[in-house]
Design brief:
The structure is a homodimer.
Chain A lengths: L1 E3 L4 E9 L1 H4 L9 E2 L10 H20 L8 E6 L5 H10 L3 E3 L6 H14 L5 E8 L1 H8 L15 E2 L2 E8 L5 E7 L14 H19 L9 E5 L2 H16 L6 E3 L16 E2 L3 H15 L5 E9 L3 H5 L6 E10 L5
Parallel strand pairs in A: 2-3, 4-5, 4-6, 7-12, 10-11, 10-13
Antiparallel strand pairs in A: 1-9, 2-8, 2-9, 6-8, 9-14, 13-14
């Protein structure tokens, strides 16, 4: 399902990052960083919640807005019952749409919000997401203290939170179109190889987006997936070529950008719902504002991993959503 | 945040129910029932997934549609990582928006879908939700086999699934308006008293809905919450009177309708995302088609319960969403 928009702009963004992200190559771009995993709270879940609240406060501060000025908040995260979102929302107090789409949450939220802004059903909205390395490891794999060895294909869940402000007020970045993904399941059962799980769903969504809009991949100055990791990125490039005869050229993956893969102990790269928006809302956003990138397709990829279902020997489904952002003509 | 719609109709509904629901007073209204908790699968999670797929197949069959005719599926459930939704979607194959809003999922889905249908961004959409008693008990409280005694205020998670078909094609029931809720947290920490957790959020949403549309509660032939239970229902009536001076008269709660509270061992009544749509999509829907009810406000109430956060001694937040359905003039 592909939408075209006429009336939606990205007005402001924010990024809150944890210690590994701060030590990564994009550290200097983040709005606020925490150098420990607790962020002044007593638990990892509450730390994630703290970062989510910070990201909302930060985007409002940067946009010179109050909470009362905002019509709607769309948010989701990786924790069970999306508790970071729900507990943060109790103190934020903006009407909430809670979503769950694993690491594709940010773009799904942007799509729901863009549809409502485009037709003036709301004046504006915030979209947020978050993830926390230790909280996610504990929930999906093993407690970090257990110290189990990991495969090279494993990705490292990003600690951080990010928010976006959308409205119909013109800005330098227009939300131009978007495609909602379809759940795909090619039978991968290895929860330590999320790149292989997600690459086919990213391919399906990119293909559908380009086909529905009658575009070539070269239309975009950058196609940015998040987060397939080193191996998933290679699978996607191969899969697009073999299955659809599409050559991805101006292409990168946020898992491979957020950390220094040679120096940091992050296996195949970053993951988690916060990974793509941390990279986009900092480094890429700045490049777009400077006019160095004109058209960017963000493709958020989500592995719909469930420990219950993996224990039942079922394979892992995946979904990816895409949104097209374009620098408005007057500053190009 | 309140929306008014001009162009959205409820075209068809479906209900799939489990054994306790089949034995309840509305048993004869359901489209399909299972008399065991496994529904032909090997686990409770896969059983819930089976019912969700059934509910989609059933609503398509009743509407004489194919999956290819449907633009979008909006779905959520109570299991971690909304696995019923995600695993069902892998076989359904319709573009998916996955949402998490606990027992308020159905109405949140109806609102997102109505916004898109109303402005012709999509031709139509399905909204689904599901829950499973044993799966939910295991995840949120204790395994059923443990047999722990429960408080009278406990609700009994409904086993079932339901789907709605929305489009701009005129039908007897129009989606007239809706209000997205705000997360409220009044400090309740008792996970065996969800009615007390949710009643204040239901009150806030009903009050905002009526205020934003300049309506009295008596505008509606029925205000139907789901699912506060016997005690939560009383709290809501008191709270509305004390806090807002609103007298709820044409009011009922689906938790108190889905089971025979005197004969079935269900404590304070039904709960789970499937409870409200099982009651609405069967008994109430039929009453609207017959013209016995003209204006109905559905208020789905969700306790954002998380075992992690309860173990951290935090209170339980809640959110409620409301949607207004009206019988179209020509058949009244």
């Amino acid at each position: 399902m592909t939408f075209k928009y006429e009336n939606v702009y990205l007005n402001e963004v924010s990024t809150i990052a944890g210690p590994y992200e701060n030590n990564g190559p994009l550290g200097r771009y983040y709005d606020k960083v925490y150098n420990d995993f607790y962020c002044g709270t007593k638990t990892w879940e509450q730390a994630e919640c703290r970062m989510l609240i910070d990201s909302v406060d930060m985007v409002l501060y940067k946009a010179n807005k109050l909470k009362n000025d905002i019509d709607l908040h769309i948010s989701g995260d990786l924790l069970n019952q999306i508790v970071s979102t729900n507990y943060a929302s109790a103190s934020i107090g903006i009407p909430l749409i809670g979503i769950y789409s694993a690491c594709s949450t940010s773009v799904l939220g942007l799509i729901i919000g863009s549809n409502m802004v485009d037709k003036e059903q709301i004046r504006n909205c915030l979209i947020s997401t978050s993830s926390h390395n230790n909280g996610a490891e504990k929930q999906f794999r093993q407690p970090v203290e257990y110290g189990g060895p990991k495969k090279k294909t494993t990705t490292f869940t990003t600690t951080g939170a990010a928010s976006f402000l959308l409205s119909s007020k013109k800005s330098k970045i227009k939300v131009e179109s978007a495609t909602i993904g379809i759940v795909t399941d090619l039978g991968v059962t290895d929860s330590f190889n999320m790149g292989a799980v997600m690459a086919p769903s990213a391919a399906v969504t990119i293909h559908n987006h380009l086909k529905n809009l009658k575009r070539e991949a070269s239309y975009y100055d950058l196609i940015l997936t998040g987060d397939l990791g080193v191996y998933g990125k290679k699978i996607l490039v191969d899969y697009m070529k073999t299955e659809y005869n599409i050559k991805l050229k101006n292409y990168n993956d946020t898992a491979c950008m957020i950390y220094d893969l040679e120096k940091q102990p992050v296996y195949a790269g970053g993951s988690g719902p916060a990974c793509l928006p941390l990279v986009f809302n900092s480094y890429i956003y700045e490049k777009m504002l400077k006019g160095e990138l004109g058209r960017v397709l963000l493709v958020a990829t989500g592995a719909l991993l469930s420990p219950s279902m993996v224990n039942q020997k079922l394979s892992i489904p995946s979904i990816s959503h895409a949104i097209s952002l374009e620098v408005t003509d007057d500053i190009l």
